[in-house]
Specification:
This protein has 514 residues and is mainly α. Helices cover 71% and strands 0% of the residues. It folds into 2 domains: 383 residues, Up-down Bundle (Growth Hormone, Chain: A); 58 residues. Helix 1 packs antiparallel against helix 11 and helix 12 packs parallel to helix 20. The longest helix has 38 residues. It is globular, with a radius of gyration of 24 Å.
């Protein structure tokens, strides 16, 4: 086995990689596997549609709040022990979620699951950087990216199968075996090193950042049902979020001692620009995965299992892109690969703006394959270039902030596109029904048959249902167009990235293993 910059060889690199990627994939699947099972949970637990949404949002909020804490915990207690405890906690809370007998229990256990799962993605990325020499970082990030991206993409298909053939509880029980195997591998193959760099915990910085993220997520999740700023609750949440962000920024800039967010991260241009890009990429990544199942099931009457299978080609596109990126990374400029991925993603989103209620499966499969391919070309090179100039001692915190911004981008994207979907559906519906009047010659026979008669209740109900479906489809297309523009407008940020050096400084020290 080759020695890295720190001089310590890494043995069992393959076993370490398999163990941590199993944990990463497990966490990635869990971010989306519950989406297709929500209607079944709603019926089983006697919950309303607004209440059952907390099964998803409680997990996202907890993970987003705890992710920035990963760097400090790893520096204080060591990567191995934090990783192992996180995997064990995630596995245990998955079992508790599956066994929940009430909505309150399920939401609480999902909250705990998000807390335990927050560290899995940033720690897995940090470990892969540390056990691989700089010339292997692109290949390592390709493997890591497959776990991070394929998990959420395959989640709906797996969730649909388990829900259809078993029941919704198995979307949580499925984590038990991977969790046990990952925990065993981490405990056996990773050997923890002594840590002398132990910073004091910045409680004020953590508290203000947590409040900002939590209040912002609450605002976005509940804004649509509370009529946005027509509600006192939304004003309170917006005030808390704005004040917390302000206090966090001022504290980070003026703290005499090291703040919760290491200021050295802000001095690294690639880290900052790469993190902003990941925030923007997270919007179409998670937004599309949320909209497509709703569109296919609610508008096109696809069964749960069929919906999951139609979305699976996104994962195949990502896998193909990951293998290609691993081979092309050393031959082409990383920024060029990212730009190519953004262009392919834009092309896929443009194709999605042409969806219709009369289409077959082919356009959905083709656009999904293209989008998965494009995001695969973005994710791995962007992860590599973002940390290419980051010193090793702040690498774990950098990966934590990177994951945080991906999650925040995804949560904001989901909330925004769902809110716009509801609003635009209402607006378009009102325009469509303006001309549906008995005095309009176009609504008379023979153009309108008895089924669509405006003189009967059944005819009016049929027309209203058709107008609602058409309005919803237009609203979906508007959302796809918005996400396409976000990806397109984010591409100029690539000009601000510096080309990574041939050998990444400061990131080559190994994590010894047994």
């Amino acid at each position: 086995m080759r020695a890295q910059a720190g001089g310590s060889p890494v043995i069992n690199r393959g076993a370490i990689t398999a163990s941590i990627m199993l944990a990463t994939f497990m966490q990635g699947v869990d971010t989306s596997i519950t989406n297709v099972a929500l209607p079944h949970m709603q019926g089983s637990l006697s919950a309303s549609q607004d209440q059952i949404a907390w099964v998803v949002t409680s997990y996202i909020v907890a993970a987003a709040i705890m992710t920035p804490l990963t760097g400090w915990l790893a520096g204080r207690f060591g990567i191995k022990y934090v990783f192992l405890i996180s995997v064990a906690g995630f596995t245990l809370t998955s079992a508790l979620c599956g066994a929940a007998t009430s909505l309150v229990q399920l939401v609480v256990f999902r909250l705990l699951q998000g807390i335990c799962g927050a560290a899995l993605v940033p720690l897995s990325q940090a470990v892969l950087f540390q056990i691989n020499p700089p010339e292997r970082h692109a290949q390592a990030m390709a493997v890591w990216g497959m776990g991070v991206i394929l998990g959420p993409i395959m989640g709906p298909a797996l969730g649909g199968y388990l829900t259809d053939y078993y029941n919704w509880r198995w979307v949580f029980y499925i984590n038990l075996l991977p969790g046990l195997l990952a925990g065993f591998g981490i405990a056996v193959f990773i050997r923890e090193t002594r840590h002398t760099h132990r910073e004091a915990f910045d409680f004020f910085g953590f508290a203000t950042l947590s409040l900002a993220v939590g209040a912002l997520q609450m605002l976005l999740d509940r804004g649509e049902t509370k009529d946005w700023f027509g509600s006192y609750e939304i004003w309170i949440e917006a005030t808390i979020a704005a004040l917390s962000i302000y206090l966090f920024v001022v504290h980070t800039a003026t703290a005499a001692e090291r703040s919760f967010l290491n200021r050295d991260l802000l001095k690294d241009g690639n880290c900052m620009i790469g993190t902003v890009l990941m925030f923007l990429v997270g919007i179409p990544l998670y937004g599309t995965m949320t909209l497509l199942p709703l569109m296919l099931q609610n508008l096109m009457d696809y069964p749960v299992i069929t919906t999951g299978l139609i979305m699976a080609p996104r994962g195949f596109g990502t896998m193909i892109a990951m293998f290609l990126v691993a081979r092309l990374a050393g031959r082409f400029d990383t920024r060029l690969l990212i730009f190519l991925g953004l262009l392919v993603t834009v092309a896929a989103m443009w194709q999605m703006t042409g969806f219709s209620l009369q289409m077959g499966m082919e356009p959905i499969i083709t656009s999904g394959l293209l989008q998965g391919f494009g995001l695969g070309f973005v994710f791995t090179p962007l992860s590599t270039v973002t940390f290419s100039t980051l010193p090793r001692q702040i690498l774990t915190q950098g990966t934590a902030i990177f994951s945080l911004m991906r999650n925040v981008g995804g949560s904001i994207g989901i909330s925004a596109v769902v809110a716009l979907l509801t609003q635009n559906t209402q607006v378009v519906h009102s325009r469509l029904v303006e001309g549906l009047r008995p005095d309009n010659p176009l609504t008379q026979a023979p153009l309108f048959g008895p089924l669509w008669s405006l003189t009967s209740r059944t005819g009016i109900a049929a027309l209203d249902a058709a107008a609602t479906r058409q309005a919803a489809m237009v609203a979906y297309l508007d959302d796809y167009k918005l996400m396409m523009l976000i990806v397109l407008l984010s591409s100029p940020l690539l000009l601000l990235l510096r080309r990574p050096p041939a050998r990444t400084a400061g990131a080559g020290a190994a994590v010894p293993a047994d």
